[in-house]
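for the writeup, i need someone to sanity check this before i put it in the appendix. the sequnce is what the collaborator sent (i think, or maybe the updated version? ugh). structure was predicted straight from it, no edits. if anything looks off just tell me and ill rerun, i have time this weekend
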Amino acid sequence: MKRCLWVLVVISYMLPAGLGAQTVDEIIAKNVQARGGLEKLHAIKSLRMTAKFSQGGFRAGFVQENKRDDKVREEVILQGMAQVQAYDGHSAWQINPFGGRKDPELMSQDDAKSLILDADLEGPLVDYKQKGHTAELMGHDPVEGTDCYKIKLTLKNGDVRYYYLDADSYLEIKFETQTKVRGTVQYNDTMLGDYGLVDGVYFPFSIESAETGTEDWARFTVEKIELNVPLEDSRFSLPATKTETKTAPAAE
């Protein structure tokens, strides 16, 4: 009898913690469901986001296009010119007319890190294991008074992201990025808000990003998101330069 009572006491102490706990996979699954569900996210084959960009006194247009698998093209548009960065799933390249470079040039692996991450159409949390990432639940942490689940996501390339998911809606409201660039770790914060529904999937229409500890926020105000738009693969591939397009002289 005494042994049975002792076992019941032990179980009574264990049950509340066990019943209330959620695993990191359960929380990520709720995030996926809150965004619209895995089926609808997987059904997105391409995406175009049109936004206004501002940082300090600088204003410009911004367009991001994504296509499966792992293709992305981003344009900052000002006075009829566009700074382009793109990744075709293998190579990252850019055109920077504002820096006097009108020809396309390949980007270094370090410089292309954030661009390659943007190429992930659903985001790194979705199917994170298949993508080679690892996730760990860090507990709760408030963001501007909102209770959040904090998830540490170690990316396949070794960089780290900390995601903050609203404990009620399970949507992402912030993530912190730790990226190693040329041997130095860079820290950035990104805030997400004004979620809106597009073809059954929720997207943030307000995105703000800055180096951790600064107030120099880069702000994206999304005007439109289009899903499954026709996009040619050539939009993401490194364009041929004038030198490369020259044909060999005809044989006599």
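Helices lie at 2-20, 24-35, 38-42, 113-118, 242-245. The first strand starts at residue 46 and ends at 55.
thx in advance!!
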